[in-house]
Amino acid sequence: MRDLDLIAHAIAKPSVTPATAAATPSATAAGTVSHAGEAGHGAHVRIEDLWYRYPGRDVSAWTLQGIDLALVAGELVGLLGPSGCGKTTLLRLIAGFERPGRGSIRIGGQQVAAPDRLLPPERRGVGMVFQDDALFPHLDAWRNACFGLRRGQDTARVAWLLDLLGLAGLERRYPHELSGGQRQRLAMARALAPTPSVVLLDEPFSNLDVEVRLRLRSELLAVLARCGASGLMVTHDPEEALAICDRVGVLRDGVLHQCAPPRELVDRPATAFVGQFVLQANLLPARWRGWRLQTALGELEPLADGDQGRGGSEAVEVMVRPQALEFLPREEGSAWITGREFLGREWLYQVQLGDQRLRWRAPLDADHPHGRRGRLCFRAGETALLFPGGRPLLTLPAGRTPGPPLTSS
């Protein structure tokens, strides 16, 4: 169903009941990480043990697996994850376009979705803002903004919203007569006009140029606060989510790995995937040697006093941030520069070491050409994390040249 059809369906048409999932999942998905991301008591939106599989898929092909998430009134929560991880599907379930195979969704204390219950979209008090704005091309800005209002409903809120979003004076323009940023503002006005308690935003800024995107995303929180609405925003951009969201949820293969405030997500990622996806950190295979960990870049030890390594042969990984590495040019070096990006105040280098491509952040005076060889190692005294578990580690001074790069096997 196209975005325009979804809007009309949610606002003006009775709900179509999708088929209930044919199979019931087990209580806990194998290998999943339990991070509910609860925001505490008084949640306005509460999602509990939510499972979903698209009709016709294999019985084990769950798009969402055991999602637990709470959204407090007035906050903005971001959803991050790679394509196909279930972010937009979760929005569709909250909006009422799909029925869960297991679990429930409550809005304002009322159950709106469960395997045996599906409240129509137009009765949920939910607004949606789509990636491509999805405006009606045959309606001017005023009529687009008023589209979701019921007969006899006061239009004063629409005028207020258009003024709040910088669209006053453009009411009689059609979508093709507006800029990209103005069209996205109009889409937000239309979503907020019926006074929803929750606004769902599906990559609302991805099609805008950089300047407009930065301006709109900085205004989003203020607009939601003025309207008394909560927001759930899908994005592929970790920087965007961390910059403006109160909390950020990270999904992978339908599993919610973590939902936490940005600072907690950065300082204490719950899984190696969260650290790699959100922080663009490096993951290195490692093995215990006594109470120290050996990697291809050098040694690490547990950070806390008395927190000795247990050893063992189990596979472990070390997560290290790009700024915690150092590149020493050497003609006989086993690593080499394969690319770089200029970030304004520093470089982000891609460095090949064996079969691994690692990221290294360096000051501007570390100006290395493509193909330069050298040794990649830890900067002494930096912190890293050991997974599974997220245990803090300390990088040690290079005592010797490490051997061949370790592999996961």
Description of the molecule:
This protein is an alpha+beta fold and 409 residues long. It has 2 domains: 3-267, Rossmann fold (3-Layer(aba) Sandwich); 280-395, Nucleic acid-binding proteins (OB fold (Dihydrolipoamide Acetyltransferase, E2P)), CATH 2.40.50.140. Helices cover 21% and strands 32% of the residues. The protein is built from 9 helices and 22 strands. Helix 5 packs parallel to helix 6 (210-227). The longest helix is centred in the middle third of the chain and has 18 residues, at 210-227. The protein is globular. The protein starts with a helix and ends in a 14-residue tail after the last strand. Residues 11-40 and 400-405 have low confidence and may be disordered.
